[in-house]
């Protein structure tokens, strides 16, 4: 007897719907017309079921600040400055309240795991990390939270940060973050990367660095991807390192950027474009043919780089938009990245599921297959190929075999009565 069975679930467009049985939070069978009794059932009626969506890069502590202040010039430096000022007024109650609102949105939208990057610096200290450590426990069973100790203000240019990062990892941060571009010169950027990898070795944790966030790579502080690939190989951390943004790849000549992408693939460094932020803050000096400023996803695929995408910021000076909805961001990435074919759209969806799971180190228990954890989303659409295009309802969100969110909606056209 199963705990839950999802009947008639469409998991592939070229195959008949299947039944998915779940016991003790684990998928125990995936086959058509399964003969088994269960304590609870969802009739999917040939609607699409996908594995739980995964946000690999979100700033919960800085979310929902847009009503308090916007960056006057809408640049990266402006957003950091404005948010740095707001951070001085952060309290645990305020950070937790905003983070909860985003987490609730993410759950309703089908997200079952999320990697958060709370700031760690002399302005806020460990406030964000401490709040998220508590929320990680509070949300257990609803969404899995990974916490990255993130030095937004730099490490060398913000003295005291290194010890705070160490303290954050001691208090329960799961990942060491970095912000390699936010140092005074390229020598300090390299030192920043070195320090991050030293902490990764000291605490045996994965690495997730904000890197190369600029329209091009003319300033060498925004051309650290190769250095990070080398550091990854030296540390033997292939498969446990991710870099976010990497927008400079979009602006570099094809031969140069392909060489960098080959290095990243070989070293086992994943790339996470953050299209809403990259587009909002990028290309601000361009008066004609404004750059899109998103890492070239198709070329990353061709190079064999693991890619995922994420919301990054939700309604603040970095990104004044967002609902913590990965299908929304995926469609935006498809539209801005020239990724429109059915095969492209399938791969974009995989970036938010299978590939993001690999990036978070949970690929062994993710997916729709026997033995995987039952993190599943029933979409209000009947073709997998339409999962992004339809912006479908997340009819049911199942986390470890338990229904954690439900959306029901009735829409109808009210036609005028026929004239007789
Ligand atoms: Zn970020």
UniProtKB/TrEMBL annotation:
Coiled coil: none annotated. It comes from the Bacteria. Keywords: Hydrolase, Metal-binding. SUPFAM superfamilies: Composite domain of metallo-dependent hydrolases (SSF51338), Metallo-dependent hydrolases (SSF51556). One of its GO terms (molecular function) is deaminase activity. Residues 41-405 form the Amidohydrolase domain. Signal peptide: none annotated. This is Cytosine deaminase. It comes from Nocardia neocaledoniensis. The lineage of its organism: Bacteria, Bacillati, Actinomycetota, Actinomycetes, Mycobacteriales.
């Amino acid at each position: 007897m199963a705990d839950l069975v999802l009947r008639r679930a469409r998991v592939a467009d070229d195959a008949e719907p299947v039944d998915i049985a779940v016991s003790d939070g684990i998928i125990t069978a995936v086959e058509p017309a399964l003969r088994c009794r269960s304590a609870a059932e969802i009739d999917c009626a040939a609607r699409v079921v996908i594995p739980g969506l995964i946000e690999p890069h979100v700033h919960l502590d800085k979310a929902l600040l847009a009503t308090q202040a916007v960056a006057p010039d809408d640049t990266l430096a402006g957003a950091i400055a404005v948010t740095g000022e707001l951070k001085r007024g952060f309290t645990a109650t305020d950070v937790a309240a905003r983070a909860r609102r985003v987490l609730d949105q993410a759950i309703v939208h089908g997200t079952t795991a999320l990697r958060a990057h709370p700031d760690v610096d002399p302005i806020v200290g460990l406030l964000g990390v401490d709040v998220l450590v508590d929320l990680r426990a509070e949300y257990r069973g609803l969404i899995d939270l990974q916490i990255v100790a993130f030095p937004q203000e730099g490490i060398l240019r913000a003295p005291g940060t290194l010890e705070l990062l160490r303290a954050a990892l001691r208090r329960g941060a799961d990942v060491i973050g970095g912000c390699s571009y936010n140092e005074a010169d390229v020598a300090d950027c390299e030192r920043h990367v070195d320090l991050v990898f030293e902490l990764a070795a000291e605490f045996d944790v994965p690495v997730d660095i904000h890197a190369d966030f600029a329209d091009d790579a003319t300033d060498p502080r925004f051309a650290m991807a190769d250095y990070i690939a080398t550091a990854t190989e030296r540390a033997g951390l292939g498969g446990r390192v991710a870099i976010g943004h990497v927008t400079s790849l979009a602006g570099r000549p094809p031969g140069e950027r392909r060489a960098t992408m080959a290095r990243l693939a070989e070293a086992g460094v994943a790339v996470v474009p953050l299209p809403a932020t990259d587009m909002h803050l990028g290309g601000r000096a361009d008066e004609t043919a404004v750059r899109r400023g998103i890492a070239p996803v198709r070329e990353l695929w061709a190079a064999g780089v693991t890619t995922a995408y994420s919301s990054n910021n939700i309604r603040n000076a970095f990104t004044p938009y967002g609902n913590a909805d990965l299908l929304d961001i995926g469609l935006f990435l498809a539209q801005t990245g020239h990724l429109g074919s059915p095969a492209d759209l399938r791969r974009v969806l995989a970036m938010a599921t299978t590939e993001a799971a690999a990036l978070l180190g949970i690929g062994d228990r993710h997916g729709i297959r026997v033995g995987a954890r039952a993190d599943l989303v029933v979409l209000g659409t009947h073709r997998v190929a339409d999962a992004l295009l339809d912006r479908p309802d997340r009819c049911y969100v199942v986390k470890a075999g338990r229904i954690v969110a439900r959306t029901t909606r009735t829409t109808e056209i009210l036609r005028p009565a026929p004239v007789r």
